[in-house]
Amino acid sequence: MTTVTYSVPAIHCGHCTHTIEMEVGELQGIQSVKADQTTRKVEITFDAPASEDKIKALLAEIDYPVEGLINL
Ligand SMILES: [Cu+2]
């Protein structure tokens, strides 16, 4: 199991966090998604078949591109 925290500057309100949690949560292998509208960070815990590449691709697709990895 892997946990990553991404910086997603496009988050600006509760609707954004809800959309991210719903969309990312639908990927296979995702264990949990927590998006924070104050810090504009998204913490995701996942197992295969989910991967960082797939998560980042999805976030870019729904217009919440990842700007950076906060920690590992
Ligand atoms: Cu919003």
Question: How large, in whole angstroms, is the Cα Rg?
Answer: 11 Å
Low-confidence stretches: none
**Side-by-side strand order of the widest sheet:** 2-3-1-4
Report helical residue fraction. Answer: 25-40%
Q: How far is the first residue's CA from the last residue's CA?
A: 12 Å
**What is bound: which ligands?**
copper (II) ion
Which overall shape is indicated by the principal axes computed on the Cα atoms?
globular
What's the order of the H and E elements? EHEEHE
Mean pLDDT: 95
Strand content: 25-35%
By secondary-structure content and strand pairing, the structural class works out as alpha+beta
Q: What's the number of extended β-strand segments?
A: 4
Count of alpha/pi helices: 2
Major sheet characteristics: 4 strands, antiparallel
How would the blueprint of this fold be written?
Blueprint lengths: L1 E6 L6 H12 L4 E7 L4 E6 L5 H10 L6 E4 L1
The site of copper (II) ion has 4 residues, from helix 1.
Describe the protein's architecture and organization.
The chain has 2 helices and 4 strands. The chain has a 4-stranded antiparallel sheet with strand order 2-3-1-4. The longest helix has 12 residues. It is globular, with a radius of gyration of 11 Å. Strand 2 and strand 3 form a beta hairpin. It has 72 residues and is α+β, with helices and mostly antiparallel strands. 19% of the residues are buried. The structure holds copper (II) ion. The site of copper (II) ion has 4 residues, from helix 1.
